[in-house]
Design brief:
By secondary structure, the chain is of the alpha+beta class. Helices cover about 60% and strands about 15% of the residues. It has a single domain (about 5-115), classed as Winged helix-like DNA-binding domain superfamily/Winged helix DNA-binding domain (Arc Repressor Mutant, subunit A, Orthogonal Bundle).
Length: about 120
């Protein structure tokens, strides 16, 4: 492993549970994917800042299946292996908008707290 790669691994961020759900839903807007492809798409689109571990990914996928936001079908991956392919349901497509709105409110609140300025006294 190169020094640059080692530094990148240290800089990767752990994901909050709700954040991972949103990232999976957003990734599946592009079409059905198997678990490994979902993780790689998130890592790639975040320029390798976000790393999705299997121990987080598969519980999140099961949670989304249980909520009816995604569905799964057996298929064959690009390297000819059996895989479960996940896709958004109609309920999931609608939920993407709700979850995106929640995230934007959350991120805005954090940004306001991080901005330098006058502290308000409570």
């Amino acid at each position: 492993m190169s020094t640059k790669e080692a530094k990148r691994r240290r800089e990767r961020l752990e994901l909050l549970q709700g954040t991972l759900d949103l990232l999976i839903l957003r990734t599946l807007l592009l079409g059905p994917r198997h678990g490994h492809a979902i993780a790689k798409a998130i890592e790639s689109r975040s320029e390798d800042v976000l790393q999705v571990e299997q121990g987080s990914l598969y519980p999140a996928l099961h949670r989304l299946l249980k909520r009816g936001w995604i569905a799964a079908e057996e298929g064959t991956s690009e390297n000819n292996r059996r895989a479960k392919f996940y896709r958004l349901t109609a309920k999931g497509r609608s939920q993407v908008l709700t979850e995106t709105s929640k995230w934007e409110k959350f991120a805005g609140a954090i940004a306001r707290i991080l901005q330098p300025g006058e502290e308000s006294s409570g």
